[in-house]
Amino acid sequence: MGGPGPYIEHCWPPKEGTQIERACVNIWHTLTYWDLLRAEKVAIERSGNAVLDMNQFRMLFCTCRIPGVTRDSIGSYFKTETEGECPSHLIVLCRGRVFAFDAIHEGNMVTPPEIFRQLTYIQKRCHSEPDGPGLAALTSNERTKWAELREYLIDLDPKNLTLLEKIQRSLFVVCLDDSSPHATPEDYTEVTRLGLTGDPTIRWGDKSYNSIFFSNGTCSAFCDHSPFDAMALITMLSYAEKKIIENEGKWKGSDKVRDIPWPEELVFTVDQKIINEIGRTKELYYKKVSDLQLVNYAFMSFGKALIRKKKLHPDTFVQLALQLAYYKCHGRPGCCYETAMTRRFYHGRTETIRPCTMEAVEWCKSMLDPSDSTYQRVQLMHKAFAKHNKMRKECENGKGFDRHLLGLLLIAQEQGLPVPELYVDNAFTASGGGGNFILSTSLTGYTRFTGSAIPMVHHGYSFFYAIRDDRIVTTCSSWKSCPETDAEVLCRTVFQCFQDMLQLTVAAQL
User: Fold this and answer.
1) Each residue of 335-367: pLDDT tens digit?
2) Which of 72, 86, 186, 203 is the Cys-Cys partner for 79 at CB 3.0 to 4.6 Å?
3) Sign of CA dihedral 184, 187, 192, 194
4) In 3D, which of 185, 268, 242, 210 has the Cα closest to residue 9?
């Protein structure tokens, strides 16, 4: 998953020559958050009165997915101060090369001017010397293939294992990207697309957090989804953004730079086979990502404030607009996955809300039937809202069923038991079961941060959205090679449906 930094809306409009200067401020605030986590000073999150599980926050730093031939594993090396020593180095990727430097010097965290010195050193070297082999691209390969190549790398030279472990254990990865994506508060498309599907030689796909800084001072995040859900990351990014705004995007502390060790380059031993595999992986990667159609637009007419004023739940409002838009575009209901958060439970992650309800479909039909009255449409809309709100509550309280069904299926597969007939039933698949949801959706909260992913199925869409007081920022993606889907058209239709729903509530009050 990935998403754009919203800093262009306040302190940091796109501007060439600001990449390193902004990166070092952003990195410093992120390191401060790491420091708070280590000291166990991050506020416990709540939903109403319920305390939420905070375990995912450990995975923001020093965490990496490790490829295995049959199964991947997650390596997490983060430790709180009471638990002991925690890795404290950063990895920097630039022009196919890999560098590392420590974020702590003589017991104190490096300051933005010191980070600036380190990043400038790396950038100068990379811009005046030949590009590196781009080993990071291998992390974008098919998982088993990458696991086999990783084993091959380790056999080639045991030193390669030491370097791989250094990357795995690092706090997070800083990516210095030469692209200059266009970005405006209304249209983040290019910065989001490049964040999610940019140069694979400067993204370590297995790391839980890659912080990408583009040449024109815009930025993006790229993450492995397996260790945490988007909300943990968004909490951290919102903390950093708040500090950036408070300090007007500048560093207001001392300019003194200590004599800290220069960054160390991690030089892997590679042979012709690895070089060829990097080339092949890049080719496959670019072929795949060139097929992705992605738009990230802000609907600017209204947002949470007005929806709440109409006494409607903002998330349900967007979900029903999406159901209506899909029905308009495709002439049929679209089975839909929406993420519900189950952090009320110990180490809880998510459950599936299924927004394509009978009530939603009845309302969509009514909206498209010219003979139906405004009164009928309003009544059906309220029924659809009530159903969705009830489902969300149930799912958040552990009363969903998709995770339970997945668990039973995995037990059957792992123990060699016959797979129950339910899982091969056409109705199960048609309703989205077994990872077949046509609409894969997620609310990324009520902050300036939004995310993006790719569709779950070839004939489907991914639809992520952030609901702000005055706007709704949406990211929609589909595959160009599928003739029946079009992310741009669906997104524009959703925006029209927002207006239609508002008009309906206005008409109902007359």
Assistant:
1) 999 999 999 999 999 999 999 999 999 999 999
2) 86
3) negative
4) 185
- Residues 6 or more apart whose CB falls under 8 angstroms from that of 510 comprise none
pLDDT tens for each residue of 167-208: 999 999 999 999 999 999 999 999 999 999 999 999 999 999
- Catalytic annotation present for 458: no
pLDDT of residue 136 exceeding 90: yes
Helix 374-396 and helix 314-330: axis angle, to 10°? 120
Percentage, residues of the chain above pLDDT 70: 100
- For the chain, how many helices (H) and strands (E)? 14, 19
Cα gap 17→218, rounded to integer Å: 11
Average pLDDT over residues 368-374: 96
Question: Do residues 466 and 445 make contact, with C-beta atoms less than 8 angstroms apart?
Answer: yes
Token readout for 148 is 């086999």
How many CB atoms neighbour CB 143 within 10 A?
Answer: 16
| Nearest residue to 169 via CA among 230, 90, 103 | 90
Our CA dihedral for 288, 132, 149, 62, rounded to 10 degrees, sits at -90
Task: Give me the amino acid identity at 270.
Answer: V
In this structure, the strands spanning 292-299 and 210-214 are: unpaired
Contact between 380 and 363 under an 8 Å Cβ cutoff? The reply is yes
Q: Which of 89, 105, 225, 330 is catalytic?
A: 225
Compute the distance between CA of residue 503 and CA of residue 73 in angstroms, rounded to an integer: 50
Q: Does residue 251 have a pLDDT over 90? A: yes
The C-alpha atoms of residue 363 and residue 22 are separated, in whole angstroms, by 48
- From residue 400, alpha-carbon distances to 47, 337, 342, 507 in Å are 18, 12, 10, 35
Instruction: Give the tokens for residue 276.
Output: 């060829």
In the sheet that holds 219-222, the strands lie side by side as: 2-4, 219-222, 210-214, 173-177, 89-94, 97-102, 264-265
The CA-based dihedral angle spanning residues 387, 389, 391, 392, taken in that order and rounded to the nearest 10 degrees: 160
Write out pLDDT tens, residues 291-315.
Answer: 999 999 999 999 999 999 999 999 9
Report yes or no: 442 and 451 within 8 Å, Cβ to Cβ: yes
CA angle, corner 474, sides to 231 and 344, nearest 5? 25
Question: DSSP string of 123-136?
Answer: HHHHHHS-----GG
CB 15 within 8 A of CB 215: no
pLDDT score, position 509: 79
Q: How far apart are CA 336 and CA 138, in angstroms?
A: 32
How many whole angstroms separate alpha carbon 281 and alpha carbon 200? 9
Q: In this structure, are residues 346 and 53 in contact, taking their beta carbons and an 8 Å threshold?
A: yes
Count the neighbouring beta carbons within 10 Å of the beta carbon of residue 261.
Answer: 9
